[in-house]
Amino acid sequence: MSAPSHVHTFARAEAAAYRAVTEAAEGRISGRPDLGLHLTDAGSPTPFGNLAHLIEPVTEAQTHDLVDALASFYSGAPGGPFLVFSPGPTADLRPYGFTLVGHPPVMFRPSGHSTVATDLRIVRVEDHRGLDDFERTLAEAYPAPELLPFGSQRRLFNDSVLDTPWHLYVGYEGSTPVATAGAYVDDELVVVEAVSTRPECRGKGHGAAITAAATSALRVSPQTLTCVPAMPIGLQLLPRSTRPAPRRGLAPS
Q1: CB–CB of 156/49 below 8 Å?
Q2: What is the set of domains in the chain, with CATH numbers?
Q3: pLDDT average, residue stretch 176-187
Q4: For residue 88, is pLDDT > 90?
Q5: Is the predicted pLDDT of residue 246 greater than 80, yes or no?
Q6: CA dihedral 128, 129, 132, 133 (to 10 degrees)
Q7: What is the pLDDT at residue 1?
Q8: What is the mean pLDDT of the chain?
Q9: Taking CA 87 as the corner, what is the angle to CA 81 and CA 93, rounded to the nearest 5 degrees?
Q10: How many Å apart are CA 185 and CA 250, to the nearest integer?
Q11: Cβ neighbours of residue 148 closer than 8 Å, sequence gap 6 or more
Q12: Backbone torsion region of residue 49, taken as left when φ is above 0, otherwise alpha when ψ lies between -120 and 50, otherwise beta
């Protein structure tokens, strides 16, 4: 695959990954195939629960339709800010009320088994208790302050997410969960997301170790790639008009 093909494959897999999370949490799903737009909404106070993914380039002429589609969907239910992820440039959406977040890097690498020397005990999540450890640690360590204190808001990860292609991992120091990572296993790509380490436990190689575990989530063909985004490729943020406070949105310039 060429570099642009890698990016397109990642955008498609990332959209599928968060659709699976939202469906498991019984959130709202929609889309506009003509725009390459995938819409998910957990009605969460954190924008990481309310995600729009573009998997195709959007032309200048399609910008009005894109903004209308986003506004129509996210104004249909209460919730916090929503994010728009795009693998390529869009028109300037700031005149429509969006806030540009930036252009974080994304790394592609061949999949395969790798390890990092660490004292971290890494466990794949297989039950409700493990999922509690995963989501609490992610919210507190990443952090997602809108979800704290843990349990005060609607959960983003329902137990049924464990029946999807997601592989979730928790890293423990002794019995204390201190790190997380998740891998969504696609036919062509393993998307690594939700990597976090508690601030007081950083600098010990825990993040590298649990990321390595996630990149080795499944025995896959030599042609399969692992994609490790620092955050999804491009972001912008817009208000949701049904909220008393602005519901804001994110995307690339």
Answers
A1: yes
A2: 3-104+231-251 (no CATH), 108-229 (3.40.630.30)
A3: 94
A4: no
A5: no
A6: -140
A7: 45
A8: 86
A9: 50
A10: 26
A11: 139, 140
A12: alpha
Q: Which residue has the tokens 């390459």?
A: 36
DSSP characters for 129-163? HHHHHHHHHHHHHTT-GGG-STTSS--S--GGGGG
Using CA atoms, how far apart are residues 123 and 35, in angstroms rounded to an integer?
39
Structure-block tokens of residue 48: 């990481």
Angle CA(234)–CA(240)–CA(243) in degrees, nearest 5? Answer: 140
Check the CA dihedral 9-166-75-229 and report its sign.
negative
Contact 184, 13 (CB under 8 A): yes
- Top-confidence residue, 108 or 12: 12
**Can you read off the two tokens belonging to residue 77?**
């239910």
Cα(183)–Cα(168) distance, integer angstroms: 6
pLDDT at residue 147 is higher than 60: yes
Could you tell me the pLDDT band of residue 248, with boundaries at 50, 70 and 90?
Answer: very low
